[in-house]
Amino acid sequence: MLASMTLLGLLAAAAPSVLWAQAAGEASPEEQERAREVLRQKESDPSKEENLEQILNKTQQDYSLVKQGWWDIFLNIDYTYFGDARSQDALIIEQTRNGRNQQPTFQVVDFRPIDVVQDAQHTITPRLSVDYGVLDNLSLGFALPVVGKYDNVDDVTEFDIGDVSMRLRWQPFAALPGQARWTLLGEVTAPTGSSPFETELGEELATGDGYYSASLGVNVSKVIDPVVAFGSFSLIQGFKEDGLDQVRQTLDGQPLILTEVDPGLQAQLGLGVAFALSYDVSMTFQYQLGYAQETDLKFANGLSASSLDQTIGVFNLTTGFRLSPDRVLNVSVGFGNTEASPDVFLGVSLPFTVEKLSQLI
C-alpha cells in the first residue's frame, strides 16, 4: 500500500550573505576628505579647477592608487551591529513507502521560510590591508581580517581569522579636473575563516563564507562642488565546496548531513554622495543593493535542494568626525528595505595608515 507523508525539517538558510566592502563602493574616509577639501578652498589657490586637480591627484585609498614602487599599509577597525527578524527556512521533504517492510524514500519538494526568529549580532573586525604600486595606475594588495562575533540570541561568541583576499586595481584613464575617476577591480578570496558549512549550528559562529570566490567590479567618483558623487558595481562568483560533513537536521531519526554547497552568482550596486558640513564633520548618504542567486545543496543520502535567492537593499547614513589632521572616526546607521535585509545596521570605523611600518619597507 502506498502511503505518503510530508515532513517539515528546519534548515538554516545556506544562501551566501552579500559582503559590502570598500571595493564594492563603500564611502571611504578619503571620499569624505575630498568633499572637505572642496569646501576648504584657500584664497591663495589660483583657481578652483587647479584645487580640484590637486585633490584628485592625491594618493587615496579607493579612487587613486599607490605610486609605483610604494607601499600603502592601512589598518581599519570596524564595529557593526545587526538587528533582524530573519526567516527560518524549511526543507520540505516527502516520504514515500511502497510497502510496510520497504525502506522509505525521500524527495525534496520545496524549500521555503516557515518561521520568523529574532537575530542580533555584534561584530568587531580589525582588518590589515597592504597595497603595492606596480605602476602609477596599477596596484596589487591583500587584506587580512580578524573577526570577533557575539550572537545575543544563541549566546555564542567566536573569535577567529576571516577570509583572506587579494586584489588588483587598475585606473585605465588619467583623471582630469572636472572629470570622473574610474577604477577597475579584481579580487580573489580564500576561505581561511571558519566556514558556516562546517560549524556546529547554534553552538558556533562563522567568520568566513566557506568557499573560494572571485569578483570583478568598477568604481567611479566625481567631484561636483560641493559634494563627491560615487558609485560602484561588481559581480561575485563563489565556487563549489564539497567534502563537507555538517548535520543540518534529522530525518526519520537519522541525521541529514550536508556534503556539498554550490553558491550562485552575486551582484552588488552602490550609489551615494559625500559632503562636508564643516572642516571637522562630514556626511555620506549611500544606497546599497545586492542580489544573490540560489545556492544548491547536496546531502549524504542523495537528497538535493536549492535555497531561496536573496535581494538585499540598505540605506546608509555615515557621519565622519575629524579626530586629528590625518584621522577620521566614521559612525554609520543603516536601514534595510527588502525582506532579506537586516532591520537595522550600526557601524563604527576608525581607519588609519601605518606610516612608520610603511617607511621601513
UniProtKB/TrEMBL annotation:
Residues 1-23 form the signal peptide. This is Transporter. Keywords: Signal. It comes from the Bacteria.
